[in-house]
Design brief:
- The protein contains nine helices and no strands.
- By secondary structure, it is mainly alpha-helical.
- Helix 1 crosses helix 9, helix 4 packs across helix 7 and helix 4 crosses helix 9.
- The longest helix has 47 residues.
- It is globular.
- The two termini are 29 Å apart.
- The model has no long low-confidence stretch (mean pLDDT 82).
Length: 218
């Protein structure tokens, strides 16, 4: 239990900031401008379902991909740390926009924006995928794996309700509130990214030192 609670908090904070439903709200409202509430609900339902299924596939298939491509877990942690840090830095500057669309592009995506760009890569981007694979690798017990899957499901369920209520929430938060929330989430994300990078770099450095200095022990 002492291990599960911190792991659950890590899963929640990292996935919530990477999914960033609050930052997605203005973009979602722009893309669905002119749609009825029923059509918007339909788009939100499909987008969150597509994002959840996609991240679940990578969560369970991540280790097989490592073996197939000969990628080390530590190397992926370092690369994932860079990706997550960059996303967090942009959010800290309050300029995080997963995808910028022009008016004519919005009309192009109007038929099925739930899959792209809303589902992928806005709600399920490279940062969230990298985070899912790394956390699944860290989940050493079935209980931790269950917590991870449960938290991912909870985050996308929360995302569903946030986007459903996006019109009201944007009015309540206002532009200043949205920017403050985005900066706070960006700072948390950068801290998680540093931990991820250090966690991947430390074993590699230890291995290099062991090979370079005979007789050294970990």
């Amino acid at each position: 239990m002492e291990t599960l609670i911190p792991f659950a908090l890590l899963c929640f904070t990292s996935f919530f900031t990477l999914t960033n439903p609050l930052g997605t709200m203005p973009v979602f409202l722009t893309m669905t401008q002119g749609m009825t509430e029923r059509e918007r609900r339909s788009v939100v339902s499909r987008a969150t379902l597509v994002a959840f299924i996609t991240i679940m596939v990578f969560t369970f298939a991540g280790q097989f991909l490592f073996k197939f491509f000969g990628i080390s877990t530590n190397g992926f942690r370092i690369a994932g740390g860079f990706i997550i840090f960059k996303i967090g830095y942009d959010m800290l500057q309050a300029r995080y926009t997963p995808m910028k669309l022009k008016d004519e592009e919005i009309k192009t995506y109007a038929d099925d924006i739930s899959i792209t760009p809303l589902g992928i890569p806005m709600l399920c981007g490279p940062g969230a995928i990298a985070n899912a694979i790394v956390l699944m690798q860290d989940a050493n017990t079935f209980a931790m794996k269950g917590v991870l899957i449960g938290m991912i499901a909870f985050i996308y369920l929360l995302t569903f309700f946030i986007l459903r209520a996006s019109t009201r929430l944007v009015n309540v938060l206002g532009e200043t509130g949205n920017n403050v929330m985005m900066r706070l989430m960006g700072l948390i994300l950068m801290v998680i990214a540093v931990e991820c990078f250090v966690g991947g770099a430390k074993p590699i450095l230890v291995e290099i030192l062991k090979e370079g200095i005979p007789g050294i022990t970990q």
